[in-house]
Every structure is written in structure tokens, then in C-alpha cells.
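Feature request, filed as a ticket because there's no other form

It would be nice if the structure record came with a short human-readable summary line next to the C-alpha cells. Right now we just get the raw output. Example of a typical job, pasted below so the devs can see what we mean:
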Amino acid sequence: MGGDKQFAGLSFEEAVRRYADTVTGVCVMRLQNYADAEDCFQNTFSKLYFKAPAFDSEEHLKAWLIRVAMHECVSYLRKNRRVLLSQPHREESAPFNFDRSDMSWALFKTPPKYREVLYLYYCEQYKIKEIAIILKKKENTVKSLLKRGREILKAIYGGETDE
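Raw output as currently delivered:
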């Protein structure tokens, strides 16, 4: 793969290197399983390569990758619903070893609709307006999800979170 294709001025390999962690983070946060996340990661970058959309900027490319990764995860969950439901305590079997200074362990304990907003806000450092665009939701909806998500995180941390 690779060739002469350019994505916001980046070669395919540069785009993968630059945004691999972001796409991985989105997929792992949504699926809570590395093996499943790898499939969605590969599908996301395959779509980038084969569809080769035009991007205005690297920020546009990053937002597109996040949106596609989220759609891939939803599609994966929909296709594999029966298999996933038959696996009890699936989340607990995932090999995650986060320490308490890393927010990831707490994010895994939040429902997906809050987890995505919290991840984009705290880990990817998007602003509310940008999250609304990426998730195709109203800004007030994102604010509400962020507020409720923070309350959930506060309960998970035992009331020790800083906002």
C-alpha cells in the first residue's frame, strides 16, 4: 500500500503513523477488546486508502478517521451481537492494566455514549463544538453527555476527580 496518494499532505504511511494511536484509542474505548479493535482499526485505514477522500486539513483528516472508526465499531458490534452476548464478562477478560493515574481504566467503566464524549474531550482534547461535529450531535447534547459523564467518573473515582 502507499503509492502516491496524499491525505491532507501526508502519505498513507505518514497518516497511519500520525493517527494510529487516535484510531486505536477510539476503537479500544468503544469495543473494550484489543482483538476487535484491531479489526476496526484495519477497516478504518483501508477505507482511507481505498476511498481516498479529499481533506481540507490534517484536522479534517483526523476527524474523518475518528468518525469512520466509530462507525466501524458500531458496525462490528451490530454484526457480532449474538457472538458478543454469548461471552459473559467479556470486558473483564480484556488484558487492560491501567494504573489509577491513567484515566482509561475509569473510562472503561462508563457507558459508551458518555465514554466517547469523555475520550474525545479529555484524551484527544477536542472542544465541545468539535465533538458535536465529529459525533453529528448538537452542542447542548455534547455538553449534557459531558456533564453526566463527569458525574459518572466522579463516582468511579470516589469523588476525587478534578474538572
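Something like this underneath would help us a lot:
The beta strands are 6-7, 10-11.
Residues 58-79 form the longest helix (22 residues).
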